[in-house]
Design brief:
heterotrimer; A alpha/beta (about 425); B alpha+beta (about 500); C alpha+beta (about 120); B: about 500 residues; alpha+beta; FAD/NAD(P)-binding domain; 8-stranded mixed sheet; 5-stranded antiparallel sheet; 12 helices; C: alpha+beta; 5-stranded mixed sheet; about 15% helix; about 35% strand
Chain lengths: ~425, ~500, ~120
């Protein structure tokens, strides 16, 4: 099979990318989705807070997804469900499988990676103790509760105060479970402040900052867990142990971009995010392959995922057009000729997306998204190129849990010195 | 009445069951857990030791060398992975060379072939990731790795296919001699002819017993014999690293052995992961398979002794196993002196896995001789494991999915396991009845996301196949349900 | 005079708002960056409200539950009573976003509506 554009993943990123690519002129599009329906992780995010930027309304996850699914269906964009992509080659050959079509391959001219992310497991954290039933990552528990209609447990302890952990604290409580405590390794919560209020405070669920789980008891099913306070290095302090009886431990301890396929295609990945290193068009190191959404870097707001994915869709469309025109002219045009300018995360900044840009090729302003490495109050986000200050944004507070961005315009840039984003 | 009851369905019990199943006779395996391979056999290093480590003349030495010699052929017949990757015992000091030489000579005495002492240069050529401190190494090219669960399960399946019965969730509580004088026994009044076993589920009578009860083998033995055994559970903790770290070393890398055991090793697994561990701590109770902060830290620190840059950031899980260490420091194999018909396989710690097939063979010989059991006509001696979709070539996979669409749905994304394979694991002899049972037969859930993605789907398939509601699905037997009910 | 500090939950910004009260009367509201924040603070100290999102049982659908929400905020103290009413509800597939599941939950005058689409699938009961 040959396709102009294949999009791997039918969640918010894949859907928005498909719509944008279509609207930019691409018609031969195929979305490959492994679940039984489009919508990705939004299908299990039944809480509010989605779409404030995109639709100026507060929607639940499934509602937000349905808006984009509708757009995909209105444009009659093709998609396959229950389809798992098993392999991706550097020559853009996709190997996928489902019950109906069996095992098949697609040679794609352009590909958009939109596979999202997975959750860090207990094993990856080396939490000591037994390995009983009753330990769930918060996302798996969320799927069981919100889509399969099952309760994972009755008495719950949650590790991790990121949004998923907070949301599940409330969800489990509303379904009749007792959430005894939420423990957070860092001295600050990773989730939105509004979620601390409406998920913990509203239900008198205590939040223990600078704490972690140091033991899990129960051979067959969880019977209890032990929390301990941690020092500045995150190491448990002996003597601070506290035991909580419970039958369930939910883990909300980090999301990891799911780049197994990217690795198979030898796409260069960022050692910080685990996602592909991309330029201002979201092109990866393999020509014709673009990335967007959580597979590129983990987002907090789906609205930004949709914006980012729309850019990927537009870029893929432009790539296909240029490739098509070049093919018509009888020669293969490379995607870009000019020297890239590196965007470096400097003091206070953990990583940036994109990682480099081509000043000569910029047509529209470039949104550089990034995360800071620690909480800072009364500071400024500053962008430099060489010694020149490009822009300065005052911020009352910045936190690792809230993605930031700056917009770079072509006029701001000159020469090919590195661009630095930092916090001052 | 049974001819033989085997207590314990670990690797030793299953090996005995398989070998005995080649003879006529009514055999039953009693296992207190929910499945075969639930305790020590599922939580060890998976090493087929070359055999230089055990004392010459000991049963450990005898069984290790014999078991190791036959392992490759056995794995081929059982369709389980076996990799002859060789092992290196490393010394970072000059003095260590003496100890390595002692091991080499001991190995020679035990019948191990091709052992040699290598110097730093040769070592680094074999293993570029060895620590720069490494000075000498004992190289054993015949050492290998197997998958301990697949070995145990495969032997159990062969036994089952040959008619051996397996009872799970049935623990032995008491054993007494049967009050019976057999007319043709020609026996002295003391020989009562067989045993009466009381279990948590009822009474079982048998002519002979094989005690393969792992850490409980002393308790079982002491029920019938006055020559008491004492088994200490010696815990070993491990890290399992992502397949991306699987090629960090290709041989099994050992430290010099100490009294407590073979020490922390770094080794590949047959599935491409990297295993780091174990330490050795005697615990005061029979069962305690929890990992501990101290234990994991100890393994972490010792891991870098001989191997540089172990990518511990790539850890995907950790676990602990219990060695059944008998005070006498050797396997106790054979008929109990004061309990005719009661056969021990006790104190099976390292090199237990390597020895199991040889122990099984030996036990079967003893019992079939004692009971005069004739060999079976054409018993099953081979078996095919669960289909491994991910290892099949493209065309073969296409064919398979066309024939059976359930192979076309991937359930475990990390390990690429299809629904068809999970169904196979449930429907085969000694099929899986729990999620961990499916895991050990297919690898579903063993990948880097540790079942975060596939668990709900696997539960659904198991419920459907066994006609249960999803709420009753268990992780590993009684008391391990995942769910507490439906949402309101 | 008393002061109450609260985090606005009106949007993901989460501004810290200070409400100065004289007895039961609100004297001053500071810290908000928009009108919604002011409105939130006012309500929060007098009669706090919340939106409730949950799921409700479905029969004959491609999923056993459908996600729902209260169409507008309801009094905070009625959250669990609202959940109790929802536990008793069973809807038949197909369900569409916006379908009214409960007309008037807990006498608030506010309906509970479906927030996802569940197709009809006869094999499930």
């Amino acid at each position: 099979m040959e396709k102009e554009l294949v999009i791997i993943g039918g969640g918010p990123a894949g859907l928005a990318a498909a719509v944008a690519a279509y609207d930019a002129g691409v018609r031969d599009i195929l979305i490959l989705e492994r679940d039984e329906r489009l919508g990705g992780i939004l299908n299990q995010c039944i809480h509010n807070g989605f779409g404030l930027h995109t639709f100026k309304e507060e929607l639940t996850g499934p509602e937000y997804a349905s808006r984009f699914i509708k757009q995909v269906q209105e444009r009659k964009i093709d998609y396959k469900l229950h389809t798992m992509v098993l392999d991706l080659s550097g020559e853009k050959v996709i190997t996928a499988m489902n019950r109906k079509d069996g095992l098949f391959q697609i040679k794609a001219k352009a590909i958009i990676l939109a596979m999202g992310c997975r959750e860090r497991s207990r094993g990856a954290l080396n939490i000591p103790g037994y390995r009983p039933a009753g330990i769930y990552s918060a996302g798996t528990a969320q799927r069981l509760v919100n889509m399969e209609g099952f309760m994972p447990g009755k008495e719950v302890v949650i590790l991790g105060s990121g949004d998923i952990g907070l949301i599940m604290a409330r969800r489990m409580t509303l379904e009749g479970a007792k959430v005894k405590v939420v423990a957070e390794l860092m001295p600050y919560s990773g989730g939105l402040k509004r979620n601390i209020v409406q998920c913990l405070d509203d239900y008198d669920i205590p939040l223990k900052l600078s704490h972690t789980v140091v033991d899990i008891q129960g051979k067959d099913r969880v019977t209890g867990i032990t929390l301990a306070k941690v020092n500045e290095k995150g190491k448990p302090i002996p003597g601070t142990e506290e035991y909580y009886s419970c039958d369930t431990l939910l883990l909300s301890v980090g999301l990891l971009p799911e780049n197994e396929l990217s690795k198979k295609a030898n796409i260069s990945l960022s050692p910080v995010t685990g996602g592909p290193m991309v330029d201002e068009t979201l092109a990866t190191s393999v020509k014709g392959v673009f990335a967007c959404g959580n597979v590129l870097h983990v987002h907090d707001l789906v609205d930004f995922v949709s914006q980012e994915a729309a850019l990927a869709g537009k870029s893929a469309a432009a790539y296909l057009e240029a490739a098509g025109a070049a093919a018509d002219n009888g020669n293969i045009q490379h995607h870009t000729e000019s020297e890239p300018v590196l965007i470096t995360p400097a003091q206070g900044v953990r990583y940036t997306v994109p990682v480099y840009l081509h000043p000569e090729e910029i047509k529209e302003p470039v949104t550089v998204r990034f995360r800071v490495s620690g909480v800072k109050k009364d500071c400024a986000i500053v962008a430099y190129q060489g010694e020149t200050e490009l822009l300065r944004k005052k911020r009352p507070v910045v936190a690792p849990g809230e993605m930031e961005s700056v917009v770079l315009k072509k006029e701001m840039l000159s020469g090919n010195e590195d661009i630095r984003i930092c916090i001052e | 009445m049974y001819d033989a009851v085997i207590i314990g369905a670990g690797v030793t019990g299953c090996a005995c069951a398989m070998e005995l199943s080649y003879c006529e006779g009514k055999v039953l395996v009693l296992e207190k857990e929910s499945d075969v391979c639930c305790q020590t056999s599922k939580a060890n290093s998976g090493i087929v030791h070359a055999g230089y480590d055990a004392k010459p003349g000991s049963r450990k030495a005898e069984m290790n060398v014999r078991g190791a010699a036959g392992m490759e052929e056995l794995c081929r017949r059982l369709d389980i992975p076996y990799v002859k990757n060789g092992s290196l015992v490393i010394s970072n000091s000059e003095e260590g060379k003496e100890e390595l030489t002692r091991l080499l000579n001991q190995g020679k005495e035990n019948g191990v072939k091709d052992l040699q002492i290598l110097g730093k240069e040769e070592l680094l050529k074999l293993e570029p990731h060895l620590s720069p401190e490494a000075k000498y190494g004992l190289y054993a090219p015949s050492a290998a790795i197997v998958c301990p669960f697949e070995l145990t399960i495969a032997m159990g399946e062969v036994a089952a296919m040959n008619g051996v019965e397996f009872h799970f969730h049935e623990a032995v509580t008491k054993i007494t001699r049967r009050e019976q004088c057999s007319p043709d026994a020609g026996t002295t009044p003391e020989d009562q002819g067989g045993f009466r076993i009381e279990t948590t589920k009822g009474i079982i009578e048998t002519h002979t017993i094989i005690n393969a009860a792992g850490v409980y083998a002393d308790e079982i033995h002491n029920m019938v014999s006055s020559h008491k055994l004492n088994i200490t559970s010696r815990k070993g903790e491990y890290y399992l690293l992502d397949k991306e770290a699987g090629e960090h070393v290709s041989h099994t890398i050992f430290s010099l052995p100490t009294k407590a055991g073979k020490g922390v090793l770094v080794a590949p697994t047959t599935h491409g992961n990297l295993l780091v561990g174990p330490n050795a701590v005697d615990i005061g109770e029979k069962e305690g398979t929890n990992t501990t902060g101290a234990g994991l830290l100890e393994v972490l620190e010792k891991s870098s002794r001989h191997v540089a840059d172990v990518p511990l950031k790539k850890v995907i899980t950790s676990f602990a196993g219990l060695r059944a260490h008998e005070d006498g420091d050797d396997f106790i194999l054979g008929e109990a002196e004061d309990a005719s018909g009661f056969f021990d396989c006790a104190g099976i710690e390292s090199p237990g896995l390597s020895s199991a097939p040889a122990i099984g063979e030996y036990m079967a010989k003893l019992i079939s001789a004692k009971l005069e059991l004739p060999p079976k006509n054409n018993p099953v001696k081979e078996r095919k494991g669960v289909t491994r979709m991910r290892e099949l070539p493209f065309e073969k996979r296409q064919e398979l999915v066309k024939e059976n669409p359930s192979f076309g749905t991937i359930v475990c994304r990390c390990e690429e396991i299809s629904e068809g394979e999970i169904i196979e694991a449930i429907r085969r002899p000694l099929g899986a009845t729990t999620i961990d049972g499916i895991k050990r037969r297919t690898r579903a859930g063993m990948g880097r996301c540790q079942a975060g993605f596939c668990l709900p789907k696997t539960m659904e398939i198991l419920a459907r196949e066994t006609n249960q509601s999803i709420e009753d699905i268990q992780k590993n037997g009684e008391g391990s349900k995942y769910l507490v009910g439906k949402t309101k | 005079m008393s002061e109450r500090n609260l985090t606005c939950i009106g949007c993901p910004l989460g501004c810290m708002i200070t409400v100065t009260m004289q007895g039961e009367t609100i004297e001053k509201i500071t810290g908000n960056t928009c009108k919604r924040g002011e409105a939130y603070a006012r309500t929060e100290v007098t009669a706090p409200v919340r939106t409730v999102t949950s799921t409700v049982k479905v029969t004959g659908g491609s999923l056993p539950v459908v996600s729902v929400k209260t169409k507008a905020d309801i009094p905070k103290e009625k959250i669990f009573a609202c959940m109790e009413e929802l536990y008793a509800v069973k809807v038949k597939a197909p369900v569409h976003i916006g379908d009214v599941i409960l007309e008037n939950v807990c006498e608030t005058g506010i309906p509970v509506v479906a927030t996802s689409n569940i197709e009809y699938k006869c094999s499930k009961g």
